[in-house]
Amino acid sequence: MNKKPVIIAAAASAAAACAVLFYVLRGEGGRDAEPAAAGAAEKAGAADGKSGPSAPVATPRAAKPRPRPAPKARAPGKTRSAPAGAAEKPRLAMRAPELSPEERKAVAAVQDALDKEDRAATFELARKLASDKSPAVRAKVVEALGWFGKNAMPELVPFIGDADEDVANDAMSYFEQAIGELDDDLEIAQTLIAAMKAVNDPEALESLASHFYHIDEGIAVEALIEIMSAGGAAAEAGKEAYSFASGEDWTGVQAAQDWLNRHRAEAAAEEAAAQAAPVLTPAPAAPDGGAAPAAPGM
After folding, report:
1. What whole-number distance in Å separates Cα of residue 275 and Cα of residue 167?
2. Rounded CA gap, 170 and 79, in Å?
3. How do residues 111-161 score in pLDDT, each as one tens digit?
4. Largest pairwise CA distance in the chain
5. 153-192 residues labelled b (16+ CB within 10 A) or e (exposed)
6. How far apart (Å, rounded) are the C-alpha atoms in residues 128 and 218?
7. Are 110 and 92 in contact (CB under 8 A)?
8. CA 75 to CA 170: how far, in whole Å?
9. 3-state SS of the chain?
10. Among 241, 244, 247, 214, which Cα is nearest to 226's?
11. pLDDT tens-place string over residues 226-263
């Protein structure tokens, strides 16, 4: 039997089936099938070393790089968003393997005092642990003190000059945040005097002195005279604040005292003039809403 006609017939049937399938797919895919077929033809031509269709080959679009998130600024252990006594408090107890049993005990004691809202016990522990050899313990004490706001400012002062940079920065952050809770310029000045006398770090002193820019210049100069008289790093840090408050360069205690005396005399004269000035009472309006009647003799 001659197999050639059979093979030809089978090939013809397969070609017909492919044609039918092509038209079916063309009807279902629509326009989307044409670019796919064109792309296949172009790839085939490139593989054979022959040029493909006249249309240029589309270059795939490069994916846009995903933007990196901005680095977060380092902040103290806890941002004080609630007053002392609120339900949520910073959890200080740690199970870090690098802490010794003594350090864990100290941290647990601070946590217990904070949970009980025992300010006196917390402050007592802070004074005791300010010289603890462990920066981790001192950091947790600062975190606890930050919860008490302006009431903890005296206890925060020793930590502002801490040998550990992170502890010192956190203490300064809480201290400056507490300054914002004070309304009286004299109280702010007295607080800054105490802090600047206890701190030796030049950068911390400069940051503290900058708060004199925001209070009454007379109060600022009086406080700075006390600071500058003590000498040391605090006196150097206060020079710029003195120039800002007085409008003069620092040349010594006597010149600063002379400025303060003139300032007080001027303020007293202004107050006396204000008290002596007659109080002008506006004339009553006419009943009909018109101009008030003129005084006799006018």
Report:
1. 51
2. 10
3. 999 999 999 999 999 999 999 999 999 999 999 999 999 999 999 999 998
4. 148
5. bbbbbbbbbbebebbbbbbbbbbbebbeebeebeebbebb
6. 37
7. yes
8. 7
9. CCCHHHHHHHHHHHHHHHHHHHHHHHHHHHHHHHHHHHHHHHHHHHHHCCCCCCCCCCCCCCCCCCCCCCCCCCCCCCCCCCCCCCCCCCCCCCCCCCCCHHHHHHHHHHHHHHHCCCHHHHHHHHHHHCCCCCHHHHHHHHHHHHCCHHHHHHHHHHHHCCCCHHHHHHHHHHHHHHHCCCCCHHHHHHHHHHHHHHCCCHHHHHHHHHHHHHCCHHHHHHHHHHHHHHCHHHHHHHHHHHHHHHCCCCCCHHHHHHHHHHHHHHHHHHHHHHHHCCCCCCCCCCCCCCCCCCCCCC
10. 241
11. 999 988 999 999 999 999 999 999 999 999 999 999 99
> Token pair of 153, please?
């400012």
